[in-house]
Design goal:
482 residues; alpha+beta; 5-stranded antiparallel β-sheet; 4-stranded antiparallel β-sheet; metal ion binding; transcription; EC 2.7.7.-; DNA_primase_ssu_euk/arc
């Protein structure tokens, strides 16, 4: 496939100098002369932007894209100001952090921390209102914004009061795919792909269910971290008022896989499974993500099947499982191997087939089935960063921040659509700025123009998801306070 270049005019921030602009737009393509014409007012100037037209061998156009290589983090500080001014949803974020209360009285007690390019942290920042926060953020342009707790005094005055302490904050959870590196076969460390995203999809499904059904929480905000994980903000009033002991109790209830990533124990002669684990196991065995995970991670290959023996310390159980593995290896189709294991070990699969009149082979012993259950849970259950959740004063990245390594925006995600997320299409700061530069503007006010740009770029649907969450939350807060 050949590539032909086409030059068109667009606008970019004047903070981007000539060489940086060329790197930002051409990303290593043929150098194109870019003329900067400074305007007396506004933040833009006209430039010649290189785009790429894709043609097949017959010369037929098959696609149009701005030619960008992997995100160049060195340019982030130059384009962040435009992102904050034109796309960052200050108003929605301020409404969330005040929960429909008096904006000034509640906002000024919330800690906001700024992290800058040199990894310098500015903690205990607080602002009188959302307008002051917006003004300061657009002035200093930090690479990251962290949200902390609500305190009994203004955080910026924390040195004045000996009894300064946090009084409430959202219950938060952090799931990072690096915690799955001992079982991930598709990627390692910071790398993420569609296959390992299934762990995130499974984790969101399980935790969202448990938080709602077992704790009664209704308002759970799920936010992509910007690189390789996801954050959860439980914003119900009862969750926000939990002190460290209460948060620890919730996390301990939800935690299964330890920091060593092991849950295996000697297989008991009399099998008892906690009702919560039974509920989770049933969910997992009915999840298409789990079935795909078993195949994509290579666990149904000849070598992968032997991982079924991991953690098995009972000789009789180990012998039985080895025999079952030997029988399953005869099956060539990997998908059918997983089905065969389920028929042997999983009572829910057996009950389903029996209901349909299928004649079944002999089931595995209760002890071996218990071990199989532990195997499934160990490889699929959410792995929580306990320390993030237990401290009421712990900081967590704010929604809509930009990750400095990837350029991706930390966007809220509908938990019901988590498995449909296409990582390649998540909003990236340079792409967003390119999108809004192509928009036609009328003579709107600054606020109207910002709302228009957000709505008509790929960030728009995620802002709508966030605003729906905030509206539902505030509605419940106000109804409860009546």
């Amino acid at each position: 496939m050949g590539i032909r270049f086409h030059t068109s005019h667009s606008r970019l921030p004047e903070r981007i100098h000539r060489r940086g602009l060329q790197r930002f737009i051409t990303a290593g393509a043929s150098r194109t002369e870019c003329t900067l014409n400074r305007r007396e007012s506004g933040h833009f100037q006209n430039v010649a932007q290189t785009q790429v037209l894709m043609f097949d061998e017959a010369g037929v156009q098959v696609g149009l894209a701005t030619f960008m290589a992997d995100f160049d983090g060195s340019l982030l500080q130059q384009i962040l100001p435009e992102y904050y001014q034109r796309l960052f949803p200050f108003e929605s974020l301020s409404r969330w952090l005040t929960y429909g209360k008096d904006l000034q009285a509640s906002f000024q007690l919330r800690e906001l921390a700024f992290i800058f390019e040199d990894n310098r942290h500015a903690r205990y920042r607080s602002f009188e209102n959302g307008t002051e926060f917006e003004r300061e953020l657009c002035k200093v342009n930090p690479q990251k914004i962290d949200i902390g707790a609500v305190y009994n005094y203004k955080p910026k005055d924390h040195k004045k009061f000996a009894d300064f302490h946090p009084v409430e904050r959202e219950l938060i959870f952090d799931i990072d795919l690096t915690d799955y590196d001992d079982i991930r076969t598709c990627c390692l460390k910071a790398k993420v792909c569609r296959k390992c995203w299934r762990w995130i999809s499974i984790a969101v499904g399980i935790l969202n269910h448990l938080l709602q059904r077992h704790f009664g929480f209704k308002h759970c905000l799920w936010v992509f971290s910007g690189r390789r994980g996801i954050h959860c903000w439980v914003a119900d009033a009862a969750a926000r008022k939990l002190q460290n002991a209460g948060r620890t109790a919730v996390v301990e209830y939800l935690s299964l896989v330890t920091s060593a990533h092991k849950i295996s124990k000697p297989t008991p002669k009399r099998v008892f499974v906690h009702p919560m684990l039974e509920e989770v196991y049933k969910y997992l065995m009915q999840s298409s993500d789990v079935s795909e995970l078993m195949l994509e991670q290579g666990w149904m290959s000849d070598d992968g099947l032997m991982s079924l023996l991991d953690g098995c310390v009972n000789e009789e159980v180990e012998k039985e499982i080895r025999e079952i593995i030997h029988e399953v290896k005869v099956v060539d189709c990997l998908e059918k191997r997983w089905d065969a294991l389920r028929i042997k070990f999983d009572k829910y699969k057996r009950a389903e087939l029996r209901k349909n009149g299928v004649e079944l082979c002999e089931a595995a012993s209760p002890q071996s089935s218990f071990h199989f259950r532990s195997y499934v849970l160990q490889r699929t259950y959410p792995r929580l960063d306990v320390h993030v959740s237990t401290g009421i004063n712990h900081l967590l990245k704010a929604p809509f921040c930009v990750h400095p390594k990837t350029g991706l925006v930390a966007v809220p995600i509908n938990p019901n659509q988590i498995s449909d997320i296409n990582l390649a299409k998540l909003p990236r700061i340079d792409t967003l700025l390119h999108e809004i530069l192509k928009l036609d503007h009328n003579d709107e006010s600054k606020k109207e123009r910002k709302n228009f740009e957000i709505k008509h770029c790929s960030l728009g649907p995620y802002v709508e998801t966030f605003e729906e969450f905030v509206n539902n939350l505030i509605f419940d807060e106000q109804r409860h306070n009546q």
